[in-house]
Design brief:
mainly beta; 132 residues
């Protein structure tokens, strides 16, 4: 799977990301995007597909430069391309878990760290436009 954000010239591989409830941590890599396996896979029915990654030059360090009408394309391992358009950006606390309780039309949320000490999380939410 891969994530492409043309306006940022971003093309990154997506790998499964897992939550460890004992340590309350998520798996992370230094150079890939993680798909939170507890959230719905990209689909045209409902749910919030959640991708996350480090604020590093190899991953999401340029994400905050995203233009207001940006498109994000998630291509799944079975060859479907999901086109999403940016709808909102917000900063939140690391313990904010609202995205895991979302119900509604299909959206994509991309998260990375922000703040002086990277103590906060920046969430970029996209609405599904079409599937190819």
């Amino acid at each position: 799977a891969e994530l492409v954000i043309p306006s940022l010239n971003m093309d990154l591989p997506i790998v499964p990301g897992y939550y460890n409830s004992a340590s309350q941590t998520w798996t992370l890599t230094l150079d890939k995007v993680q798909y939170a396996t507890i959230t719905p896979e990209p689909n045209n029915k409902e749910g919030d597909t959640f991708l996350y990654g480090h604020y590093r030059s190899e991953v999401f360090a340029r994400l905050h430069l995203i233009p207001a009408d940006a498109v994000a394309i998630v291509t799944t391992s079975n060859g479907h391309a999901f086109y999403y358009r940016l709808s909102s950006i917000r900063t939140t606390d690391p313990n904010d878990d609202h995205v895991f309780h979302y119900q509604g039309k299909p959206v994509l949320t991309i998260q990375t760290c922000t703040g002086i000490f990277f103590q906060s999380r920046q969430l970029f939410t996209f609405n599904l436009e079409r599937v190819v």
